[in-house]
Amino acid sequence: MSFKPLILTVNSNIHNLELLNQFLNREGYEVISVSNSEEFHDTINQSFQINLGLIDITGFDSSIWQWCEQLRNQEIPFLIISSRQSAAIQSKGFVSGASNILIKPLVIKQLFDFIKNVLED
Amino acid sequence: MSLARLSTGIAGFDEILHGGLIPKRAYLARGGPGCGKTILGLHFLNAGIANNESNLYITLGEPAAQIKSNGAIFGFDTQAIKFLDLSPGADFFTQVQTYDIFSPAEVEREPTTQKIIETIETIKPTRVLIDSMTQFRYLCSDDFQFRKQVLSFISFLLQAGATVVFTSESSPETPDDDLQFISDGIIHLDNSPEGRNISVTKFRGSDFIAGLHSLRISSQGMQVAPRLQPQSFKQEFILESISSGIPELDELLHGGIERGTVTIFTGPTGVGKTTLGLQFMKEAAGRGERSVVYTFEESEETLIARSQAINIPVDAMVKNGNLLVERVEPLLLTHDEFANQVRYEVEQSGTRIVMIDSVAGYRIAMRGADLQSHLHALCKYLQNMGVTIILINENETITGDFRATDLGISYIADNIVFLRYLEINGELQKAIGVLKKRLSNFEKTLREIEITRYGIKLGKPLVNLRKILSGTPEWINQDDNNK
Questions:
Q1: Cross-strand pairs, B74
Q2: A74 touches chain B (CB under 8 A)
Q3: Which of B93, B188, B210, B422 registers the highest number of CB atoms within 10 A of its CB?
Q4: How many angstroms separate the CA atoms of B220 and B46, rounded?
Q5: Which residue of A has its CA nearest to B141?
């Protein structure tokens, strides 16, 4: 496969990012990761094409929803990762355009299935 | 047993397993904390070192350095054991931030598996210890995965040619039934207030000695005293009578007591039961035979001293190796351990007479465990080995209603010899009689017995007395016999 989809991973926890990137790389994805708002805005304004966003909302304040809106405006599909099941997060997430909401801890195989689904759409 | 066996490094345990573990199988050692699972495992690994078998200790809980230093205390050659340390190091705790995006099962299983595979392929071990398999449970997302993982892990090890012992920490919260089904053999270790014990409940492809066996953990590691199985011992012997060395006593017994029989000497305190037993041993020593006295009440010194005073040279007999006086400390040994001591005496030292002094002491020393069945097993074993057994039984009552024994052990005996105090003409005298003798006839009358500085003296049969068993006999014809 010559074409490698680019995935943007957003996570406030460096260890999570490292792990996630490791797994995604192994699965054949390019990864660009950010852990704070500056990095996010820098990345989003670059010219390269992001195929998918993986947003772990844990550890961010409510501005995270604005980031999500931004992704939607740029027509980048994204998945939201949350540490708990909550109706408020669900509705906010879908309102801001998330393709799906995943609850931690993630099952690696499942995560890949979701990513594949979204990318194929 | 055609299959070659692999020693566990514990002699008594090999005996329970009828020779040892069957190679290239996986065995589960289970038990609560402090039961000796790790020590058992170290014995297993250490046993292979002498044969140049390669070994591997996979530790998932306790750090390797700690196992090494603890193992050295028990005398294990821990330097010769190869360790794969998968226990979490200190840095795991100091790294404050850890991941939460995936479950540890997802993240850590693969590197762990990889490490194990690499190590196995380099070392190619013959003996593998996994301590403990329970840890793998937390690396699997569910029970199904766990079982599948363990099964495939074990078959990987077995294909690599290893014999595997894996431990499991079982508790009501995390039962290990699944591991029990998977394994080829199950070893249970238990540590209860009554003592430690070990048992086997499953051993594919082999028989084993069932039931609980005593276990002791000392500075030499683990010792197992297998439960005595009398039926598995048989030794040919000539069923001859052994003499007491006192003609009158032999007359009373119509020749003496036979080899491979159980004789109970019963009577009240101080009447001369132990002395009577020692008399048989003195005579046996004259023939060059070895005897053992297990004394539960008296100390070795007093026994020797008072025997010397009545012309039984216990001291010399001990020196010549014809007698062993073994003081058994109460509450120290379990019945299995005691039985194994006796076995050693009989099988290694060729002992022909065993005396247990006394049955009540034996009962107390064995922590009140089922006296009859254990004593029965011990006596049956000794009988099968052709050993003459003398049991000393003390009756609570000095005179009064006659009872053979107080502890309900009469049925074990082939011969019952009783000693009594009699009040004759206001004088306290002792009498000896036979109540039962399975293999020959015996005198139905009583004889007077006296213990003097020249030894035991027996008088003529007391034929003209009646109500002897009451303790206050009367002359049948007072005038004729009153001397």
A1: none
A2: no
A3: B422
A4: 13
A5: A107
